[in-house]
Design goal:
With 155 residues, this protein is of the alpha+beta class. Helix content is 41%, strand content 13%. The strands form two sheets. A three-stranded antiparallel beta sheet has the order 1-3-2. The chain has a three-stranded antiparallel beta sheet with strand order 4-6-5. A hairpin with a 6-residue loop joins strand 2 and strand 3. Helix 3 crosses helix 6. The two termini are 33 Å apart.
Length: 155
């Protein structure tokens, strides 16, 4: 599933059970993945359809051995540095577009979307992370960067 996702955004890439590559996966396994919060089911369809969640993307990175990779850490650090520049003065939270962050960071847009969706910076570095702007719930084109972005999480 992770290989089929490639560089697409988890929120729009769907997986259909009837495809040959998923034929040997039991329906109860799909249910377990939903229960774990790793897949989102699309209800009311004749044929079941799923997408990875942000948590599912993180789990997939771990399962395929990319979680501890230098490339992931570098990309996450580049994203973190780009986002941190917006709140350097720490006066207020800041809203930016995905397009701005893509241009300034040089990272792929969908990788950024997956990182925001999964709270990658929080999970990888244990720091306060950015999130989707709650005023843009449908399209997720705006990122809300809290003024405390990058501070260590209280344990």
């Amino acid at each position: 599933m992770f290989n089929e996702l490639g560089s697409e955004w988890v929120k729009i890439k769907s997986f259909e059970l009837h495809k040959p590559e998923f034929a040997e996966i039991f329906p109860t396994t799909w249910d377990d993945l939903v229960d774990n919060g790793w897949l989102h089911p699309y209800e009311g369809r004749l044929s079941p359809l799923y997408s990875l969640t942000g948590s599912g993307w993180i789990a997939a990175l771990k399962l395929v051995g990319q979680w501890d990779s230098d490339e992931l850490k570098k990309n996450a650090a580049d994203l973190s540095a780009t986002l941190k520049r917006y709140v350097e003065k720490r006066k207020t939270d800041v809203q930016v577009t995905v397009a701005q962050v893509t241009t300034e960071s040089g990272l792929e847009e969908n990788w950024i979307r997956n990182a925001i969706e999964s709270h990658l910076i929080r999970e990888l570095f244990h720091q306060i992370d950015a999130e989707w702007d709650p005023g843009d719930p449908t399209f997720n084109n705006h990122i809300l960067i809290p003024r405390r972005f990058g501070h260590k999480l209280n344990q």
